[in-house]
Design a protein that fits this description.
Number of strands: 12
Bound molecules: pyridoxal-5'-phosphate
Radius of gyration: 21 Å
Shape: globular
Order of helices and strands: HHEHEHEHEHEEEHHHEHEHEEEH
CATH superfamily of the largest domain: Type I PLP-dependent aspartate aminotransferase-like (Major domain)
CATH topology of the largest domain: Aspartate Aminotransferase, domain 2
Distance between the termini: 57 Å
Strand content: 15-25%
């Protein structure tokens, strides 16, 4: 898939536009075709619809360029995460977040209860607690910034410690995205994404991916996908590739909006605390600056009001959608503790806010109107 480009020299903005294109030929298409086939004639390199197809390869090649590794697409972020956990033998020790993405912590709790894995839950942003938990572990599973606390983990330090302790080190890079950090370049074995979020970016499809530089890990994950069956539909993969073309632009704009809204929220007397590593007042600002190339577009903020009022506020917005998910062009928020599975370390009054690409003043006006509608003064 070189297409004659010297990919190393191209920037992310250019890679997402140029990558994953079919070979140039007269009247050849610019985009891969959606091959709706389960079955292929014998003798070729693919063999069957569960093993691969043209659109997966185009999307995988494109993400591979952003993360400098080899990518496998899965049916969802959780499909990719399950495949990663399936690499561990029965009873293996894994160090993971006590308050990371609730889907992952819920799955880990279930695997722990079933004695499939022995999970040591730690507060990932607290480096010492990670280091203490490492001896005897086979996997260090990281997420940074954490979802929804928006706390930054000291990735260079804990990845190096995890490798030294003999762990397979995995990083969920969904919130930061490859625009902002590349876990493989920091020494991690696997970087994974919910492609559902920023990489595809339009709140329309679910997909996930793993990226690794290791041929042996790639092979094991490919086997996990092939026989676990968590495969992407060709249509979803095509939509994700289309969304990826504007990933850099979307991310840039969302991030600018997030920075501006975080500053305005911080000054608002109805807000107790804003969690955004781009704010100099944020406890994770200096850590984020030390290895990240930006601060992302996820803000969490705590509101000085009763839970019912905060729920009303989230429901009153006209531009910002009250929903669970993130990373789309449209702004989305929700009070996270409305979910029974959310960690109890997350405050009841915390709103997670995925900032989209709308006009920032329109968003601010919507936030103000939502405060008023809920009678929050
Ligand atoms: C950080 C993170 N990782 C993984 C997932 C799971 O991804 P999916 O919903 O695509 O299965 C999510 C979903 O919200 C997430 O926020």
């Amino acid at each position: 898939m070189s297409q004659g480009h010297d990919w190393e020299k191209l920037s992310t903005e250019t890679k997402v536009v140029a990558a994953g294109r079919p070979a140039k030929k007269p009247d050849g298409a610019l985009n891969p075709s959606i091959a709706l086939n389960s079955t292929f004639h014998e003798g070729g390199p693919v063999g069957y619809g569960r093993y691969g197809n043209e659109v997966w390869s185009a999307l995988e090649d494109s993400i591979s360029l952003l993360e400098s590794g080899k990518t496998l697409i899965f049916s969802s972020g959780m499909g990719a995460i399950s495949a990663v956990f399936s690499l561990l033998p029965e009873g293996a020790v894994i160090v993971a977040a006590e308050n990371g993405y609730q889907g992952t912590t819920t799955m880990l709790k279930k695997l722990h209860e079933a004695k499939r894995l022995d999970v040591r839950f730690v507060n990932l942003p607290d480096t010492d607690s990670v280091l203490e938990a490492l001896p005897g572990a086979q996997m260090l599973y990281l997420e940074s910034p954490t979802n929804p606390a928006i706390e930054v983990v000291d990735l260079p330090v804990v990845i190096a410690a995890g490798k030294k302790a003999g762990c397979l080190v995995v990083v969920d890079n969904t919130l930061a995205t490859p625009m902002i950090q590349n876990p493989l370049a920091l020494g991690a074995d696997v970087s994974l994404h919910s492609v559902t979020k920023y990489l595809s970016g339009h709140s329309d499809i679910l997909l996930g991916c793993t990226v690794t530089k290791s041929e042996s890990i790639l092979e094991k994950l490919e086997q996990a996908r092939r026989y676990g069956g968590a495969i992407a539909g060709p249509f979803e993969a095509w939509i994700a590739l289309r969304g990826l073309r504007t990933f850099a632009l979307r991310m840039q704009r969302s991030q600018e909006n997030a920075m501006e809204l975080a500053k305005r929220l911080e000054k608002d007397p109805r807000v107790l605390r804003v969690r955004y590593p781009g704010l100099p007042s944020d406890p994770f600002h200096l850590r984020a600056k030390s290895f990240m190339r930006g601060f992302g577009a996820m803000i969490s903020f705590e509101v000085k009001a009763e839970v019912a009022q905060i729920d009303k506020m989230c429901n009153s917005s006209k531009l910002i959608t009250n929903a669970t998910s993130l990373g789309g062009v449209e702004s989305i928020w929700e009070r996270r503790r409305r979910w029974a599975t959310e960690s109890h370390t997350i405050p009841e009054n915390l709103i997670r806010f995925s900032v989209g690409i709308e006009n920032v003043d329109d968003l601010w006006a919507d936030i103000q109107a939502s405060f008023s509608a809920a009678n929050i003064k």
